[in-house]
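Researcher: Going back to the complex we discussed earlier. I've cleaned up the inputs and rechecked each line, so this should be the final set. Can you rerun the prediction on the complete assembly and write out the structure?
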Amino acid sequence: MTVVAQTGAAGFLARYEGLKDHLPGARKPWLNALRADAAAHFAARGFPTRRVEQWKYTDLAPVAQASFAEPLTMVDGAIALPAANAPNRAVFVDGRFRADLSTLDGLAFRATGLAQHLGDAESHLGSLAKPEAEPLAALNTMLFEDGLLVDLPDGVDGGLLELVSVAVDPGRPFAFHPRHLVRLGEGARLTLIETATGGGACLHNPVFEIDVAERASLTHGRMLQEGSGAFHLSTIYARIAAEGTYDNFTVAAGPRLTRNEIHAALVGPRAACHMNGAQMAGEGQHVDTTTSLDHAAPDCASRQTYKTVLAGRSRGVFQGRIHVHRVAQKTDGYQMNQALLLSEEAEIDSKPQLEIYADDVKCSHGATVGALDPDSLFYLRARGIPEAQARTMLVEAFLHEAVDTVTDETLRGALTRALDAWWSRQAAAA
Amino acid sequence: MLKIEGLTAEIDGKEILKGIDLEVPTGQVHAIMGPNGSGKSTLSYVLSGRDGYEVTGGSATLNGLDILAMEPEERAAAGLFLAFQYPVELPGVGNATFLRTALNAVRKGRGENELDAMQFLKLARERMKALSMSDEMLKRGVNVGFSGGEKKRNEILQMALLQPSMAILDETDSGLDIDALKIVADGVNAMRGPGFSALVITHYQRLLDYIVPDRVHVLIGGRIVKSGGPELAQELEAQGYGAVQAAA
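Model: Rerun complete. Updated structure for the full complex:
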């Protein structure tokens, strides 16, 4: 048999056709229907092009034109895991849950691999993701093999949980599409610390479906740090019920192309959502944060603060949409994005988008773009601090503001180290 | 000793300093007075190495070293200190981190050992006490949320920590009430001694009641038009710059 490597969307569709009877959950009609529906959407639309409004500033052509293999079925040998931030962690290698590398004993809630527990996921899987609207979610739904399943019963304080994703470089481009399901029952609490690392030309295309029940609180810290050959395209869907909170802090630094897309919906009164992050890019890299926030209930609050630092020939994108529905009176929405350009060749595209249909709301947004302030730099140097060190102090100060509001010290420490590590690499390369 | 000879400098092609000759011997405090736009701040920036000022002629040496050829941080290590007229705010840079980094950079430049966090804190608290500053100001961002007086005291604290041999105080009195002015002046006077010189740039005579200079120079139109003893400051206060300018 001759295998013709197909590229882009056709390649993924061919893989789905070939694998669909063998994918996890292939004997479950509801899941087959979900996958078939997603495949139809993906077949119809393929990878989004820049003609699509939401992808105007981020070109997926390098992904669409590449040919990605499946990850190896079994990765042998030692896996280099990032340093642990918490005692409990779920480890995924090339998108597959590795119980042997994970430490999840003695938890007061369930945290495990999705592939083995698909029977319990019917009500959750696909309840928030929109394959009809987001082609990457369609691709994920069509081909996901595994993911993290977290289910906190009412009132449980889950403490810290780590989600570690490691991509092992097989020496050729490969793709994986984990589906992560996180559900917090009423009044439950969890801090989820996610780290994505690994090398090679991988396409990591995770989709999260996050369901936060009434009075529950999820803090989700993310460190997207794959190597410079990687494509990281993640889509998060979060639904936050009355008085619930979803806080997302993302540090995106490393991959060739990163898209951090978040869709959050505040669906009950007095729910809150904070989305903060720092995204950095150096020579030849592209980072994109795209958020979409639905205020669909009254008295909800949302805060977004994003920082972008660009060096070399790089590009950054921030798109932030806030949709305040007619019922969402007394909405308090705030969005700020600030970019620091360290080179003449760097470019930032910033697009806030407020759609307000209620009449009694407080919504504001702002954007700033600039270089390092020469007066600040001179002040530090006049105090004897060498220029390179002065630049480091100012860049780190700019970035650290993005994580200032993280109350959990473990998470703040991890995020800060990720920020500083990026700058150290960048400063060393310059 | 600071020695300036025939110094000329311009900004965007416009000549601001038109030939400054000035010597501040070691151990002395000199004042430079002058009206707005006379070149006072330009002189302080040229000496400390700010970008955007082009030296077109002349020289400036500190203890025999050609400071104009140095980077700003090298000038600081060589013993030069500029107390800014408008200290910048640095959100996200902790004041304690900033002060310790600056102190250790300068110590390193001078071939001295660096201080660890404990040694630094002990020293900083001691110096802050003398300036009536609360420890809490170490925890804030550099100058962030500081009042005008607190910013100026923070400048003097930096001077007290870095122990320069030559300090330039650029309108340090602006924005200070009388109590803050006394604290700042005490801070400067405490530094006075055989190893310390200062150039006090001011618009008004008031500061010079508290920091009594050895010499006063009048800068008008980019030149020093008159020099004299401390009594010259009172003369200027009584008669204004116009009289000096007319006589010059």
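Model: Worth noting: The interface with chain A takes residues 48-51, 71-73, 75-77, 81-82, 84, 87-88, 90-93, 97-98, 101-102, 105-106, 109, 141, 158, 162 of chain B (CB under 8 Å).
Researcher: Good, that matches what I expected from the previous run.
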